[in-house]
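Narrative of accomplishments. A recurring question from our advisory board has been how the design workflow behaves on a single, concrete structure rather than in aggregate. To address it, we present the structure tokens for one chain from the evaluation set, followed by the sequence designed for it. No filtering or post-editing was applied between the two.
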């Protein structure tokens, strides 16, 4: 590939990053009439999930309808986040009328589930023609939304769908559902590599990371875990988080979680093996080319957007939590503090480790005045990580924790000083900033 075409591709990738982040939170004038409609349909969907959690009878009928409702919920969230992409539709009066019909369909589905779920002794005689018409009308509307979460056949992405189903089960229950558990891997399915090397065991004695082969084919990392298999709420919460994490393994920018297993009677988590270690370790030992830096940043951005689509926040975005494959593919990892954006803010004790990437609003937090961690906080951390990738060092390296807090709260940030370099590299650096 020529230098010119490489530069053009890098420029394109940088534009994608900026445009992706710029769309978030943007509200166009054309979308204003739809805001109350979106709010209405969101409320109806929440009411449907609440009704479904209390279903007494005819669960099979209700369950099939809930698949459509879950798809509708994901599509509406996509529409709400990506208003810019649908500006043309928003200005179309027929689209507006279709949206009103869609709301009416959702309301009728809500009433149907409510009625059929409380009829005992027999199954209600269903007006099949009317119900089929309603569902077809809903499907047509979902097709007009499309987006990355809908595939070529206009079916909702299975990964997102399954994650949202689990999350909705949790949202409307007082206790954690006990049947939501991480995948169990039989110990016999994990074997030592036929040809080992010194990097097959990493970490320290307290928390070693061991390379194994899953089903004698897939390279995986096995790490000791303190997960206890009991019925306590904390154990069930961890199992649920791992189950959701397992659903994300089809995303190319998130470290695959295969499940839980045992090695020599020790409980271990089984993750995808990342040959090059963390991104921080990589830049400490090597000078990463600028074309690779841009691609790495773009892939991490895609992973974060996917997590946000699933309403999951990582909480600790930095190069130390990005693992790198032998093909220089970044994988977002270390979900120890990850949570859904509707759950309570996780308490993070290692402030001295993460303060270098922490958003100003979180720096203002006190025990008496907790500050909710939001997607904006995540994007701020992502921005600081871009600086880290660019300069290949931790932000504010030579500053003490209190000085960093004072510096950031005054509106100051890390310095950007590129130095002298080839013109094509300087162009990339200017766009990267």
């Amino acid at each position: 590939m020529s230098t010119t075409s490489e530069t053009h591709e890098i420029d394109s990738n940088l534009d994608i990053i900026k445009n992706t982040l710029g769309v978030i939170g943007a509200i166009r004038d054309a979308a204003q009439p739809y805001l109350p409609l979106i709010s209405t349909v969101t409320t109806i969907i929440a009411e449907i999930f609440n009704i479904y959690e209390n279903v007494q009878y005819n669960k099979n009928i209700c369950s099939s309808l809930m698949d459509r409702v879950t798809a509708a919920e994901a599509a509406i969230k996509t529409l709400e986040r990506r208003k810019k992409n649908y500006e043309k539709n928003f200005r179309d009066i027929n689209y507006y009328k279709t949206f009103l019909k869609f709301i009416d369909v959702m309301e009728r589905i809500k009433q149907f589930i409510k009625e059929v779920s409380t009829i005992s002794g027999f199954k209600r005689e269903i007006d099949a023609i009317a119900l089929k018409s309603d569902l077809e009308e809903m499907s047509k509307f979902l097709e007009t939304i499309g987006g990355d979460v809908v595939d070529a056949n206009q079916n909702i992405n299975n990964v997102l769908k399954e994650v949202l189903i689990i999350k909705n089960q949790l949202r409307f229950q007082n206790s954690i559902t006990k049947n939501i558990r991480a995948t169990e891997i039989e110990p016999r399915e994990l074997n030592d590599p036929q040809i080992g090397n010194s990097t097959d065991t990493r970490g320290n004695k307290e928390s070693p990371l061991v390379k194994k082969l899953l089903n004698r084919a897939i390279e995986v990392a096995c790490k000791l875990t303190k997960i206890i298999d009991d019925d306590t709420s904390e154990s069930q919460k961890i199992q649920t988080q791992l189950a959701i994490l397992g659903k994300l393994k089809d995303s190319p920018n998130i470290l695959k979680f295969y499940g839980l297993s045992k090695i020599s009677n020790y409980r271990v988590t089984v993750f995808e093996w990342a040959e090059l270690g963390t991104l921080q370790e990589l830049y400490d030992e090597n000078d990463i080319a600028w074309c690779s830096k841009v691609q790495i940043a773009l892939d991490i951005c895609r992973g974060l957007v996917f997590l946000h689509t699933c309403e999951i926040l990582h909480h600790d975005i930095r190069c130390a939590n990005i693992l790198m494959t032998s093909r220089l593919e970044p994988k977002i990892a270390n979900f120890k503090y990850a949570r859904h954006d509707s759950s309570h803010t996780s308490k993070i004790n290692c402030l001295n480790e993460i303060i270098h990437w922490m958003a100003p609003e979180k720096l203002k937090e006190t025990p008496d005045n907790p500050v909710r961690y939001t997607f904006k906080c995540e994007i701020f951390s992502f921005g600081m990580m871009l600086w880290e990738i660019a300069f290949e060092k931790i932000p504010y390296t030579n500053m003490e924790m209190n000085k960093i807090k004072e510096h950031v709260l005054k509106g100051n940030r890390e310095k950007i000083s590129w130095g002298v370099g080839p013109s094509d590299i300087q162009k990339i650096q200017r766009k990267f900033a």
